[in-house]
Amino acid sequence: MLFPSLLPASVRFRPALLGLLLLSFCGAAQAKPRPHYAVAGNEKPVALLHAGRATYLVTERSVFRLEGKEFVRKQQLAQSIQCAAVADTALWLGTRAGVQTLSTATFKAHPLPLPGSDATPGITAVFRDARGAMWVGANGQGVFRWANHTFTQELHTPAINGGVATADSSVWIATSIGLSRKQGTEWTRYNEEGVANHEIPDNIVEKLLPDNAGNLWVVMSDAICVFENNGQRGAAEEELPSVKFIGRPGNEVMGVASVPGAGRLFATAQGLLLLPNEPAGFASFAPSTDKVEPKRLLVPLPLLPETGNPTLLQVDQRQRLWLVSHSGVTVLTNAELRRLVATRATSKALANQSTR
């Protein structure tokens, strides 16, 4: 059964995202996962962080460290945690009441007040840039960089929804009036109006999702686009691959990972959706056209035992895929994931043959 997603003809597409507009559901198949790590509390996952040999899971109230075969709670906060990052020997937690740092040795929490009249605002972004500097985004106050043991304000835009850094030394800030990017000392703003040809489909940028292939996925209130890691990010006139949604209207996208040899995997409210690599012999797409060509299919992957619906995806340096949900953490080797995808694709092909 196919569920078409309709877009106006004026929307322009690039090949990388054409397949996101059809969803195919067939019979489920399962691959054997690696041991599942249960996590106490059933709390919303916020971040999975790796530092050397240590792995930390931050949820909306707690900080866990992986010790042997279990995640052990090391700290529990009264304030709701909204974002987190790791830097050297400290965890940085962005809460609804300001920034907290935790020593990875003692796990004692220390507040880190921001300058200004409201020293404990709601924090919506905490991240480390490619040069090792820490950045904090505070809703209502703007963006700050931590240097020489003090905060320096970098951006005064008040409505901050998120922020990330990419390997090319860029800093990206999601706001309700567009997307801001810092390269070197210069800020560039992308918005719906396309000032100086820096255009994105929507001004309300809700979240930024970098994947392990160096791409940055920009999730907006009414569209999704991607800055591809293909050496053309700086070309202002380059049209961004964009779609209206993934799977169906209103489907929330929470994470994305590039799976070598398989395609792109999305963690969504509908579950795990795979956009396979284009099959051999598949009709090519013109890169800049208003015509919607035949589309690739999103393949829904079955939920693995005990995993639940993952909300975080992460590929580590060993090419293992970490799936994080309210109920716990499951880790798949690349071989296990490719086996799952291949089995799923075979089931879909057999189902398609049976309907002919």
Automatic annotation (TrEMBL):
<protein>
    <submittedName>
        <fullName>Uncharacterized protein</fullName>
    </submittedName>
</protein>
<feature type="signal peptide">
    <location>
        <begin position="1"/>
        <end position="31"/>
    </location>
</feature>
<dbReference type="InterPro" id="IPR015943">
    <property type="entry name" value="WD40/YVTN_repeat-like_dom_sf"/>
</dbReference>
<keyword id="KW-0732">Signal</keyword>
